[in-house]
Amino acid sequence: MSNALREKLLRFEQLRDEEGTPESKAIVEALFLQTSIINERLFNIEQALRGVPAGKKETDL
Q: pTM for this one?
């Protein structure tokens, strides 16, 4: 995960905790989850390009 993405996820967590209304919290939570899913998909694509089977890490090989 890139440092920029890690910082954005951290900021989403902070916003989620700071927001007052349930609606705002729900929006921030949705953004956090979508960003996490995109990160997971990008990680799987990177692993596939490296020839690492899905669900495995390079260190597991």
A: 0.61
